[in-house]
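During the no-cost extension, the postdoctoral fellow (Dr. R.K.) reprocessed legacy sequence entries with the updated structure-token encoder. One reprocessed record is reproduced below for audit purposes.
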Amino acid sequence: MPSSLLILGDHPFAKTPQGKLKCRIGTIFPRDGVLVMLPGIHATQRRAYLDWLEEHRRASSLEPLSPTEQSAVWIRAVDLVIEEGVLLIRPDPANMELAFEADELLQESYPKHRIRFLHVLNKQVREAIKRRGELWRIAPLPRTIDEMKAMIAASRIAIGGKEVYYYNNTTGTRYVTYQDFVWLGTLGEEELRRHLSEIGACCTRTNAQRNLEVRFFQADASFGPADLAGYDFASLPSAELWETYQRLKGKFREAVAPAFRHDDPSSAEWRNRMVSALLAPRDEEVAEEILLGLSPEFYMSIHWLPGARIEHGELFLDPVFEAAASGADDEVNVLCDEKVRQFIFNFVREYGDLEYVNVGRVIGSLSHRELARGRRDVYVAALKLRNSDREIVLIIRMMKWGTREHLDAGRPLDEAMIRSEQYMEYILDRRLGCRQLWMNLPPRITAKRISEWYARGPWRFRIWSPYFERDYVHGIATDKLPNYRFENLEYAMAFARLLGQAAAPNMIVGRCDLEGKVLFDDGDEMVIEDARGIPQEIVVADHTGTFNDFLSDLILWAKDYAKPIRKRLRFVRDPEAFVAGYLDAFVERFLAIQNEYRQRRNAFDTVFKYQPPDSAGNFPYRWQKVLERLDETDPHEIAERIRQEIFGAAGDLNAEPAAAGAAS
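Re-encoded structure tokens follow.
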């Protein structure tokens, strides 16, 4: 379908002979079908369109637009920012409908996946896009140091002269650094005049977002627009121009801390401050978990994916899926995740009257442990029912050993399917066993399946892949807690007791990896705080590794259970009380579980007697051995050994732990 878009200026992705984009900003008038791509700022592009409109009206013998009509044209414009291969729409949060009209018009000329939305931190914008099931189209935050450096480099922009500014796509503010201000003095007198005039005019002017067009990066209140006011740099005599410039440069230098006088993306301090300036509106905290109220462990770690929207109960898959089906665009193929389509189908079947669904892939592992073999795909889903005010946030984890993984190992299809079902039963039995032994797990987990294509030789066929779905735990992982919190004695003592309570069942169920490394305080234990910010509960979000060890003497793990306390001692005000709180809670919880088993022995012993125990290691056998070990263990002896590992045999915090290979 031919596009109805008229472009004033160059094509948005037009480049200079040096390979740079000719114009980094644009202004689109969606109801007029006009895109302005002329050098300048958004305000001058709006003015250019009004001038063009008046010229055409004169040529058609029409009356000039009245001031009211000009104002109406002005406010029906939408700002664009152009990056390499991407058009970024900067919506007015109060007029999202206009932004969506601009989006639809642009899609007539450009692929949908190359059109994104800014204002990631604005609630109105997020909610409007979320309702369309298109969180994936919000321009993502940088997730790595390299991405931060690339974003800083890509933010360089000019107004009418050289690229001497760092541009915040969201606010429209351009930052000039002290280093760039110094560099102006090397460009020659005419360039200096032009740039000082440009900076002087723009540092007092606000854009359509009511943000300053130009700000001085990291300058304190001693230097600002007032220092450039009153100068006509274009007509100052040469000597006075240079004298004024030197004085301004000196004031700028004094207003900036030494760490920010040189542009240095390799410096964490400079880089982080610049990233905040380029992302946050008015110095707000930048964190992607704001999107869903997720904990800081998800900070910039979610890659939102194309999914579907729901209108009047009808499901409409994102057109990007159809584009991916053609296989012509590798970028689109990578963007689309077939599993997401299947997840959404399951949500629609289960929940019925959905308002929206957004699904994102969790990038990388959120724990510190090394990845083992098997599937590790983890997703976050945000969905809402039309008759509910509460958003449902779910964690989706593909089962590690499903049919696909067994087929990859060379097994025939029937055996792969049977092994997959057996492993699912094993995981659910472990969960039941953990709950029986008082491990505090999320209250609900559901085993589901999606269908996937699998190719083996000349054959291509559908298989069913299991996954587990659970409610998101709104807390922060124990290993992600900032150390300063432990300086609060009330916080530290509450945490110590909760961690001790969590340590007891974790030890009892032999939670470790396949190499025997204890899994505890490494990403799965989530602290839930009360209204005052004091820990009130620890929930184990994932029972990975439970019942892996069912034979070892538990006292051998004392060193591993000393580490979570020892590494935090230097931050707490009362180390002795901190340790005592942890160990007392550990012993109390261990004894309580032990007493519960001894009083209800038959109920525990028979719960997994659906098949005979097999010494090769089936779950009924592991359960039997774990219960025998629980009955025979003295938690007081283990607690004393943990104390020695924390303080050393002589009871000295600075001494080496009793066992060889002390915990660091």
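The chain has four domains: 1-122, 141-286, 292-471, 476-647. Residues 292-471 form one domain. The remaining legacy entries will be reprocessed before the final report is submitted.
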